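Weekly modeling sync, notes
Attendees: AB, CL, MP (scribe)

Item 1: holo prediction request
CL wants a bound-state model with PPE before deciding which constructs to order. AB pointed out that an apo prediction alone won't tell us much about the pocket. Agreed to run with the ligand included and paste results into these notes for async review.

Input as submitted:
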Amino acid sequence: MEKTKKIWMDGKFVNWDDANVHILTHTLHYGLGVFEGIRCYRCDDGRSAVFRLKEHTDRLFESAHIMLIEIPFTRDAINKAILETLKINDMKEGYIRPIVFLGDGSMGILPKNNPVRVAIAAWPWGVYLGEEALKNGIRIKVSTYARHHVNSMMTKAKVTGHYVNSILAKREAIADGYDEALLLDTEGYVSEGSGENIFIVKNGLLKTTPLTSNLKGITRDSVMRIAKDKGLEVKEERFTRDELYIADEAFFTGTAAELTPIREADRRTIGQGKPGPVTKTIQETFFNIVKGKEKKYEGWLAYV
Ligand code: PPE
């Protein structure tokens, strides 16, 4: 990965190479930390804008709330720190990773007086699954690993430890020659990708999974708005893997993955085996929005 100059840590900037923690950092051992993934885009007018900054910061605080972690900064302070991290690093576009974690102090499962620490790093991050993926779509595999049961992990919180499940699924998919994994929930219904929400299209109707065992994706929310504004109907409804197999179109959404078409699932071609018209029109509008070309959605952009 490409380094940048500074990382914001607990209220001040430190050099990239000095942004270190003690080996007894609680989160490193037990996985209780919350984080965000945010993108900043270079706009056509030369400015640069963070996509849906407020919603990401709100979700960071909601994740912490669910996990009984008290963030020692206000939402405004975090929003400001994110914008400052981009400025100090002269970053016109890239990925931003705020993380809230429990520092060192005591060991054992029960976090005692371990300090709640906050860091914000930013670095250039190109297309998550490759240019080819955005253009022609990817091949996915239904994972042998189930997404977390709603009473074992609470996936409305974006928690570091939750991602062990994603890593298992992703590694398996890659080792088996696929581009990405699709996890089912513990009842066997489609949940989400290792780091993406999923949409399917059938006869012009869009469907996405309801918010149960999956993350409340901000790209998912944006795509639902874009689709509705185009006069398309969007349903949040459970569906099965075979409904995906016979869909006309399917795609993943995520901050990192943006809007990635799915062309094949478990060796079944989806639709025509290439991005379909609904996927393409939403994808195009999404990229126009993040680059500041759609005035109607200006409210989603926080200019740096
Ligand atoms: N589900 C999961 C499990 C998930 O991790 C993400 C984001 C999403 C859905 C989509 O959410 P949103 O970004 O708000 O639309 N995954 C982040 C981490 C990717 C990584 O490899 O790290 C991301 O896209 O930033």
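Recorded for review: The pocket of PPE is lined by residues 37, 166, 192, 195-197, 214-215, 217-220, 253-257 (CB under 6 Å).
Action items: CL to compare against the apo run; MP to circulate these notes.
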